[in-house]
């Protein structure tokens, strides 16, 4: 994804922006999140500067990245983002693929009136990783000895599937143990004997 920005702190003559982007590993149910903090000069009349090596801290999902940081508004162009620091986090999603918003915060004592004490928080929204395969069957009605095609629209190429069926038995019978994208199941001819008093019946596929 392209880097997305939001402002996390605004001072008299400058602000701190957060930029973020991420990639997702569907097979492992994880997100690699990159968060960057930027300083932006917003008022050209200010000439604030800091060379005291004060600590700038960027915290992402509870883990801090810190560095000694100096800046000089005299050498900065108004409206341009200047990178302060970068944090990369590997985030494991919940079993259903969700994770929600990842908290982000910054803290820095600039020792200048133009920027002040930088303190702000926000969050980064992370998309849910699809975990379930959405199957479909065709045809939806078939005779004993006929074939039912099962299409498996899986979320990851690493996913394999067990397929089970039940037709008037009350128990599941496994017909495939490692199906990938599709499976053709031939209905056993002896299934007809399970419904001796009628010409049709409904089965289940799991």
Task: Characterise the protein shown here.
The chain contains no helices and 14 strands. A four-stranded antiparallel β-sheet has the order 1-2-3-6, with no helix packed on it. Strands 5-4-7-8 form a four-stranded antiparallel β-sheet, with no helix packed on it. Strands 9-10-13 form a three-stranded antiparallel β-sheet, with no helix packed on it. The mean pLDDT is 94. It is mainly beta. A hairpin with a 3-residue loop joins strand 1 and strand 2. The protein has strands at residues 4-10, 14-25, 30-41, 49-60, 63-72, 81-92, 101-109, 117-125, 134-138, 147-153, 161-166, 173-179, 182-186, 204-205.
Fold blueprint:
Blueprint: E1 4-10, E2 14-25, E3 30-41, E4 49-60, E5 63-72, E6 81-92, E7 101-109, E8 117-125, E9 134-138, E10 147-153, E11 161-166, E12 173-179, E13 182-186, E14 204-205
Summary keywords:
single chain; 206 residues; mainly beta; 4-stranded antiparallel β-sheet; 14 strands; 0% helix
Largest sheet features: 4 strands, antiparallel
Strand content: over 45%
Which whole number gives the mean pLDDT?
A: 94
How many helices in DSSP terms?
0
Question: How helix-rich are the residues, as a percent range?
Answer: under 10%
- Approximate shape: rod-shaped
* Spatial strand arrangement across the major sheet: 1-2-3-6
Cα-to-Cα separation, first versus last residue: 35 Å
| SSE order, one letter for each helix or strand | EEEEEEEEEEEEEE
| Coarse structural class | mainly beta
Count of extended strands: 14
Radius of gyration: 29 Å
Which residues sit in consecutive blocks of at least 5 with pLDDT less than 50?
none
